[in-house]
Specification:
Helix content: 55-70%
Structural class: mainly alpha
Largest sheet: none
Number of helices: 15
Order of helices and strands: HHHHHHHHHHHHHHH
Oligomer: single chain
Distance between the termini: 31 Å
Amino acid sequence: MAPGRAKNRKPPANADWCVADILAWLEENGSAENRAGMARFGINTGKAFGVGNTALRPFARSLGRNHERARELWETGWREARVLALFTDVPRMLDVNQARTMVADFDSWEIVDHAADLFVDAGHLDELVPELAEDEREFARRTAFAMIAWAAVHLKTRDDADFLRYLTLIEAHARDPRNFVRKAVNWALRQIGKRSMKLHGPALALAETLAASDDKTARWIGRDAVRELSDPGRIAKIGKRRT
């Protein structure tokens, strides 16, 4: 892209929409059928319009990023408004204390996973992961491991050594039987193991240790990770990606 070209880019089509406009659009485009489908996937639909992410993502792009509007959307409590808040916030403007306040509102794995992406992009990985991993709230703890999983894939310039220390957290919480925690712990372990060959060995070793555990949850996490990290095709892809 030529220097200065981005300055001439057209603003998003709906950049001037306020929260009331957005809520009206969500109400118009929601459906009971979509709400029922979301509920089947474990998404909290207690306060939802029933607009799927396939519609929310392009709508978010049409709105553009706006930190203050994202905060207002979050405070409405509506599921779709909160997803849009996470899609359209300005990461560099989201401070760690606001992130902590948002965690207190988490009521769905879906919201957690989108928020985890935002928190990593906002630069809060190192501060929030250890803190949230020790938090006894199910969705708070899930956030820590969802952040690790996202970071392992997307923070490509981070030293692999930064992710080795997260294996200790994974081992420490691999016996948490709560569904949304155990799945996130497993997710984090697999993503670390797929990041590079340097990390693959330690991650696979931990997976094998967990697979041999006398704890049912740890065994499930370990066996599932071993299955993926031992796959020859997967190992070949990791070798091509990073050394």
